[in-house]
Amino acid sequence: MTTSDHEIYLDHHATTPVDDRVVAEMQQYFTEEYGNPASKDNHAFGHTAHAEMETAREQVAKAIGARTGGEVVAKSIIFTSGATESDNFAIRGIADYAREEGLGSHLITSEIEHEAVLEPYKQLEQEGFDVTRVPVDEYGQVDPADVADAIRDETVLISIMAANNEIGTINPLEEIGNIAADHDDLWFHTDAVQAIGYVDIDVNEMGIDLMSISGHKIYGPKGIGALYADLSVKTKLKPLLVGGGHESGKRSGTPNVPGIVGLGKAIELAVQHREERVSHVRELRDHLWQRLSDELETVSLNGHPEERLPNNLNVSFPNVDVRELVRMSLSNQGVMAALGSACASGDGTSHVLEAITDDQDRIESAVRFGLGKDLTKEEIDYAADVIIEEVNLTESIFG
Ligand SMILES: *Cc1c(COP(=O)(O)O)cnc(C)c1O
Question: What are the Aminotransferase class V domain coordinates in residue numbering (predicted)?
């Protein structure tokens, strides 16, 4: 697609490159220490694979503050094939438990969740569960008071994302967690895929019972993720995948050891380097926004002006055919951006933007830029030059 020497990747919400240090850690578990962790008592390769998997479990638990009395609770981490599975597992796992135990059948979520949360909710609704989807404000933020108002005696699950993958808005997790904690047999799940590298998340302090994360959004490999489950709720979760009883019977299937090692390393690096990554991408993002807003009269910002991911810029270019802009004009010049959400496989309009505005032109002309740690100011300036030139060109054609 690219006919340019430039490769300016501004789509880090869709996926990120794997950090060289992560690749280096993973390497030997493909070709040298390739044992199955289930063979840990049989031979050295099995023993090593198991030990490395448990080290990664500690790394993940530590990174999200999964502790009791100062001790890291590694057992609260269940490895999965990615956040899509983690989201499905958390939601189904609670719903199936509630159904089996005759608990309530009411579930709460928001209007702006990822499809990996929205779809299992839809399925459960068809199976007889009652669902409340709390609205968001004009910036895409959930009001904890709306969550509190939605809770009934029958409510068993609240699933509200930590930060949105399209517009970057960060939700008040701790307030929602505190509300959930006041109720028995009510669990709080959050999809923290986009937030984890940029927001300091402490599952204990924030009252989070279940949390989904993914490797490939934090400079780790694709096809690996985890579900954090507080031990009191982990025992209750009904597994999605049954078989050999791996992951304490919660997720059968031979563990992806290289992927798990990579996830552990990636999340450790994300926490270690969080501050510098945050300030770097924020500076570049603010610079990009400054240039676009200075030089383009009609551009507008989508999402919260402050409480947003530091690497996210979602803007609308009214009267511009952004499909053409992103897929042809920018792409041909090596600037890689996204239309709304790259996760949505269809070409439909964004449910996130529809939740924050009625302005169809604003919805249909939205472009998402997702910045990353390895970008430079020069690259951002090149991207800004190209975007400004192309937007001006199409606007002049439209008159
Ligand atoms: C990417 C993403 C997912 C899906 O994660 P996979 O590991 O690709 O399955 C879920 N939720 C959010 C918010 C995401 O951005």
Answer: 8-382
Cα–Cα distances (Å) from 114 to 140, 161, 242, 381, 382, in that order, read 13, 8, 25, 31, 31
Residues 326 and 374 both lie in one domain: yes
Q: Calculate how far, in angstroms, residue 83's C-alpha sits from the geometric centre of ligand 1.
A: 5
Whole-number CA gyration radius for the chain: 22
Tokens of 56: 């990664």
Kindly state the average pLDDT of the residues 172-197.
97
Percent of the chain with pLDDT over 70: 96
Among candidate residues 240, 269, 298, the one where a domain is terminated: 269
Find the domain containing 312 and state its range. 8-17+274-398
Residue 3 lies in a domain: no
114 lines ligand 1 (CB under 6 A): yes
For ligand 1, say whether the CB of 165 is within 6 Å of any of its atoms.
yes
- Per the annotation, the verdict on 210 as an active-site residue is no
Mean pLDDT, range 277-286, rounded to an integer: 98
Nearest CA to ligand 1 atom 3: 83
CA–centroid distance, residue 193 to ligand 1 (Å): 6
Q: What is the pLDDT of residues 220-229, one digit of tens each?
A: 999 999 999 9
From the list 148, 343, 344, 388, the catalytic residue is: 343
**Residue for token pair 């990009």:** 288
169 and 311 inside one domain: no
